[in-house]
Every structure is written in C-alpha cells, then in structure tokens.
Specification:
The chain is of the alpha/beta class. The chain contains 15 helices and eleven strands. It folds into two domains: about 190 residues, D-Maltodextrin-Binding Protein, domain 2, CATH 3.40.190; about 90 residues, Periplasmic binding protein-like II (D-Maltodextrin-Binding Protein, domain 2, 3-Layer(aba) Sandwich). Helices cover about 50% and strands about 15% of the residues. It is globular and about 60 Å long.
Amino acid sequence: MITRKHILFLFITVFTLLITAACSSSTSGADEGLPSEITLDYAYYSPTSLVVKEFGWLEEEFAEEGVEIEFVLSQGSNRALEFLNSNSIDFGSTAGAAALMAKGNNAAIKNVYIYSQPEWTALVTSPESNIQSIEDLAGKTVAATLGTDPYIFLVRALNEHGLTVDDVEVINLQHSDGANALATGQVEAWAGLDPHMARQELETGAELFFRETSFNTYGFLNVREQFAEDYPEVVERVIEVYEKARKWVLENPEETVEIMAKEAQMDESVADLQLERNNFANPIPGSEHVDSLTEAGLVLQEAGVMDEEHDIEKLVESLIDPAFAENVID
C-alpha cells in the first residue's frame, strides 16, 4: 500500500537525482563559458586547415571540457562566407578581399589569423588558345566564381588594362566546375584557383597567361563576431592550434603534400606545386594585410564592384582584428 510517506520519499529521490544531473552537467563545456560545439571549415586552398583536421588537434584541445568539434568543407570563399553568415560555422577560411566585400555587405565577421600568403589565383587559358594578354579577353567567355579572390583578381586585372567585367562574358561557376569548363572548351579563359589551377597546369597543359602576386589577397581565418564576443578564449585556443599546424607545415612539407593530395584526391605533384605557391610567414594580422586589403578595396570601388559610399579604410579596420593572435603568438 502506497502511503503519503512513500510518495514524499519518491519525490525527494527524484528531486535529488535532477539536482545531481544538473550539477554534473555544469562540468560540460557549455556551462563553463564554452560552447558545446565548435564548427570550422576546411578547404583545399588552405593547407593548414587540412593539417588541423588530419591530426585532430582541436579535438584534443577541447577534449577535457567535452566540446565537440565539427568540420565542414568550403569549396571557395563564397561558400565559407555563406556558412558564416548563416551561422553554420564559427570559423571560415577565405581570401582577404572576399572577406572585405562580405564585410561591406554587413557580414558580422572578423579576421583573426592569416593562414598563408598564397599565389593561388591567376588567369588561365588552354594551350590551344590564342589568348596571350588581358586585352585578348575582350568579348571572350571567362569562368569565375563570384565573390571570391579569383573573381576579384579578374576584376583588378581587367581594370589595370583599361577593361571592365562588362567587356567580357563572366560565367559564374564554382572553382572546380570552372576548371572543367576550361578543359572541355566550354569557356575561353578561367580565373583559376589552386589546387584546381595547379592540376590543370600539370595535367592538361593549361597556361597561366596573367600572374600578379600582389593581386592575390591573403588567406584569412575569420570568426563570427558574436562567437568572438561570447568566447574570446576559444578564439585564442583555435588560433593556437592553427599556429601549431602552420609550424608543422613549414617543418614537414613532404608530409603536408601527402595530406593535401589525400584530402583533395589529387596527385602529389599537383599538391606540391600548390604548396610551393604559399608563403606561411606573418600569421598575425598586421599593417601589410591592412595595406593590401585597402588597396584591393579601392580598386574594387573604382571598378564598381564595391559601393563607392564605403569608407574602405574604416571597413578594413572593422574587419581585421589582430588582438586575439597577438595574445597567443610570440
């Protein structure tokens, strides 16, 4: 027979279990001022992101707090920025100029780390083409991924030679599709991106007919502003892991090539060429990155790609935040 005493005892037992569970859950990452999950992208154009993913260093970094780590593939800066804007990822890998354009469109992001200075884009044509200069592009079809460094590279190249995007027919294709379109003759030129560009160069004899290192903006690791505000220590710890990967890449180029080739399913010779075109110095956002991005922004304004009402210097200042990296990198 159940008495009032039994009911009271049962109630106290259940209540105690609930309190115990609540207390034990307070040891989880979310209740210690940490997110329950951190989502980052990885990208074939960012060797350090591939190394971070390969070795599980972020999982190790947050294992004791029980914070889950999830990786999402970004196929280009445009995808990384879409993921950031939709809160699908917390950290995203983009080109600097692409991040600036997104910032100009009110993207709530900050650049907190430089993962490389690459020459990852050039203007490419097939070996049979008669295109040899920027002027030869007038009236031609050019594949490019809108909102990415290769597209911005195309705009700057045309602008420097007295042309605009209105003088060519831009075919908006994701990077890998643009490479295939060039190889199959569907377009006459392509604003390329490594590793697809390196693969076309080695496997099909594609020609990089216009190269300009200074038009390639830096590789930016961006974070959502709200995430950085809520979890500044997490941002610093993620940067520390990226810094570990950067140093590992410098010390282990052959192993890095193997990882790149495996992830992107490409020949190691392609990965090797891509890696050669990356400079991994100066990971802390600084004056050289500010100057490069400011120059790119002014050119994009002149070309009508960015709103002329923007104060480019202030926009760059609001995007680049070196404080997190300065706190953890010697």
